[in-house]
What does this fold into?
Amino acid sequence: MIITFSVQNFLSIRDKVTLDFRATSDKTLEEYYVVSVEKPKRRILRAAMIYGANASGKTNLLMALDFLQQFISDTSTNKEIPIPIVPFAMDEDKPSIFEVEFLQKGIVYSYYLELNEKCIIQENLSYFPQGRRSTVFSRNLIDKNEFKYQYSWKNASVDKKQQDALELTVQNQSILSKIATMQYSGVLQEARNWFTGTMNPILDYTTDLLNFNYLTYLDSSEQKKKYKPLYLELLKRADFWIEDFNMEKKIISLGDLPPSLRAEIEEKHKEREGNKQIGELYRLKKEFTHKTPSGTFVLNYNLESAGTQSFFGLIGILFELIYKNRIVPIDEIESSLHIDLIIHFITTFLRNKGGGQLIFTSQNTAILKEKDILRRDAIWITDRKEDGSTSLTSVSDYPVRKEHSIESIYRKGLIGGLPNLGSTLLEDENDTE
It folds into this structure.
């Protein structure tokens, strides 16, 4: 779980902003929202919802988290490739900074990364095995021309040979990335496992959730036996009148495709995977059986409503959150979904306890009316400052009481996050009656 996440000088984020999952003293929905850690003492929230005007930086906050996850996961070692970091437009000569405190297998870790497109400038990892901070390693750039670093290995549990290998890590690679290429098990690997095995990529309206659901939860007979009844139960509760569904994978030979399509697939694969051989190609047959008071009929998935498709995709995300304890960032959670379905999804996640975390952005203020899923410290507001950069504040920073309507306060602009709109007239107001 994320405890705190801070980022500075990334996309629209100029000054340091912090998304803080540490619960305040508020006991609202404590049973559903809060996971407690004794040493060091932490009360961690299971959800965060981010509101703000368009272009205020909501998505960029999720992208910062996504960048960090992908950077740690990447094990490539080509030192000539620039780091794909995008700093704030007016601070391109300054480094970007990421800090994250997280919970992995009951132990709190703290990771710091400072870098630019050329190299890592500073990288540190600490953890709290007995409730007290203990440094694992530090790496500091001391010669920016030769990319030489000063290292400290205090509690990394590495021998001399492993230490020497780690100190050969190229300047555009993290130590946590390098450790994946070595025979090692210990605190460094546990930290890396959190990044690679806990954090999901950002979901938005372009994400292919159908294939994700099929490959993750419905591909094998064992998966179908375990998860299909849950899919059907959740679809039934969502009132789609879906009684059954069928998905079958049909293998497609690359040689059977038209030459132009085959060339396009090969080119895209080469861009993503280099010379790695193309894997299995398949077409997914997917049909849904609807049972209504007037009769039963079958629809191809592509003919289902956008809301049905979106909710079906989110069922797999529920399983990721509840059964796999993963961190799932969703951009614009309301895409194609009725407000009642959004509330149903969030409530189902919260009422089924686990160590997963849901982070989402939204423009739908109706969610802010639902006191059954709201804590003030779980609601965040982004604003655009005078220089165009992003600020981030929690609703709990304002004098908002439990009896207040957060939706009403937000819509009135009392806690920020609203666009500054101009006149609706297309002609000069003075010339128009």
Summary: Residues 209-325 form one domain.
